[in-house]
Amino acid sequence: MRILSSLVLGLAIASTAAAARPVCPDGRFVQASSALPGSPDGAFGAIVIANGQASIDGGCEPTKVHRRAKKNGDTRVQAKWKQCGALKKVRLVGDIVADGAPCARLTGTVRAKKQDPVTIGATRSRCGDGIADPAETCIETPAHEWTFVPFDDAFCADGTTTPSPTCCPAGRTSPSRCRPT
Length: 181
Description:
Number of domains: 2
Number of helices: 1
Order of helices and strands: HEEEEEEEEEE
Distance between the termini: 66 Å
Radius of gyration: 25 Å
Structural class: mainly beta
Number of strands: 10
Shape: globular
Strand content: 35-45%
Oligomer: single chain
Helix content: 10-25%
Strand order of the largest sheet: 1-2-3-4-5-6-7-8
C-alpha cells in the first residue's frame, strides 16, 4: 500500500512540474532559404505556427502541430503532412529556442519521402525587425489620446465635473468620464 501511495504521489508531482512549463507562443519563423525539401535554392522559407496548427509557405497547408515544453525552457515542435504539393510524407521536427530573447528561433529539420532533409534555422518574424518577410504587414497604431466626455450623471471621484490630475486623463478615477479616441 505504501508503494502504491508513493507512486501516485510521485506521478502527481511529476505531472504538476510538467504542466508548469509553458510552451512558446504562436509565431511566424522565416529563413533566407526554402524550408521545403527539393525547392530551388535561394527561395524564401517560412514556417507558421498558429492556433494549434503548423504550415510551411510554398505548399504545406495547416495541419495539427504537437508542442511540448522541455525542461530547459525550449519547446519541441512536431508536425506531419500526408502531402505538400508534390512532396509526400512531410515531417517537421524542431525546437523553438532562445536566441537573445525567449522563443526567438526555430531549429530542426523538414523531411519528405525520397528527398534530402532541409535544416531549419528560422528566426521569429516581428514588425520592424529588419527581416524581409513578404507576408509581413506592419500597421502603425497611434497612441491613444484621452478626451474628456461630459455626462450629466457622471462625476469624478473628487466630485468635480472637469478633468484634473485626480480625474481624467492622468488618474482616470472615473472611467465613465474619459474614453480613448
